[in-house]
Amino acid sequence: MNRTTSIDQRWREDNPAKGVSLLKSGAPPREAWPQDLIDAYRAKATGRALLILEIALGTGQRIGDVLKMRWGDIEGEGINLTQGKTGARLWVPFTPHLLAIIAEAAKIGVKICAWGRGKPSSYRSAADLVIAVRREIGAEAFDIHGLRYSAASELASLGCSDELIAAVTGHATGAMVRKYAGAARQKVRAIEAQSKRK
Q1: Residue 140 lies in a domain
Q2: Element (H, E) at 177
Q3: On the CB side of 24, how many CA atoms lie within 13 Å of its CA?
Q4: Tell me, what's the pLDDT at 26?
Q5: What is the pLDDT of residues 54-107, one digit of tens each?
Q6: Which domain holds residue 43?
Q7: Is residue 26 part of a domain?
């Protein structure tokens, strides 16, 4: 997207927003989905609603990138992608769970999450599918982007380094990896620390 400002257009010489503080949303911080809600979603969802969850969780990517994934991007037992936000180019191997779902998914269009007669999924249609299942299982507090947190959290709980987590999620900085994986990593470290108190 090409964004031009009033300064670029020479309509103004100054930025009227400079120095204005960002508004606080008041929304609670985003969290990883608990495993029991992931399991409940898997038990309730079918079709594209399940496919969206599994790709987002299995690859650790943003929903916009999940919806852009094409059947032709699959290489071996993983997928090539270019992240829309960062431009990072990644090959992400599928988890065994995702590999099974991909093998069963109907190839009705160029994009993996296509619907109907091959129409690409919009963000709105994907969000509507996911929220319908979230409401059924009582997971309204956990949004689609929280699945990216869940992927990083799971990798952290398995003892993966920041570098290994970033190889899957594409995070460019260790600070972002720590933000996404922090709670799970803290729990693993606390368990390790307390195990020494015998």
Answers
A1: yes
A2: helix 174-195
A3: 3
A4: 67
A5: 999 999 999 999 999 999 999 999 999 999 999 999 999 999 999 999 999 999
A6: 35-144
A7: no
